[in-house]
UniProtKB/TrEMBL annotation:
It is found in: Cell membrane. This is Probable membrane transporter protein. The lineage of its organism: Bacteria, Pseudomonadati, Bacteroidota, Cytophagia, Cytophagales. Belongs to the 4-toluene sulfonate uptake permease (TSUP) (TC 2.A.102) family. InterPro entries: TM_pro_TauE-like, TSUP. PANTHER family: MEMBRANE TRANSPORTER PROTEIN YFCA-RELATED, TRANSMEMBRANE PROTEIN YFCA. It is a multi-pass membrane protein.
Amino acid sequence: MPYTELITLCGFSFLAGFIDAIIGGGGLIQTPAILFTLPQYPIPTLIGTTKIPSLFGSLMGAFQYSRRVAVLGRFIAPMMGIAFCASWLGALTLTLVPNSFMRPLALTILVSVFIYTLLKKDFGQGTPRAVTERQQRQRMWLMGVVIGFYDGFFGPGTGSFLVLGFIALVGFDFLKASAHAKLVNASTNLACTLFFASKGYILYTVAIPMAVANLSGAFLGARLAILKGNQFIRVFFLLVIAATILRFAWDLTR
């Protein structure tokens, strides 16, 4: 592979890691970049290759957040295990049935999320919600099943859906939601990585340099999000959701 192509992919991977660490959505940058740059390879191989940098970036983001944001360890650990299994099952299901119906469904949900977040100024800004520990546990584990399966079966927007779920269902603010989302996303990325690796769908000579770039971007993105706080993350959330909507809409009209 020409070094120019690898350098280009690493640049996109750095940007993806930066954005993903703040609010999720790095796949919007990284996946199209590799599909466009390396069209000679099968799509499963390219998707599998992006999972390693996504995993590295998620782990870095999770590490940075966990050092500065209180994490519900007794709830999040089981949720990560549930999400791991659900993601593996989703990836396996993808090899058996098409996922074309997911794009219009995800588009509808994202448009609703964007409008709601835009209009509700205090959404995710630290306003306490009356959610009991039992409700938190049940809702987090249910999210692990649903969003974990979604990540393995389809994927785009997983980080944003996790953040939304932690805010709307569990009562977190944006910063705390992002911290927990990174941990869960790391477990789903690990499941997908192991699945694609077992099928031989990874270009390691491409994945490893991209992983280093993604990790570096995630380090800076997480530090910036922690420094700037909830309002900054909210703006990024709206931008990422808008970009996801545009991408899905473009795909549907092609």
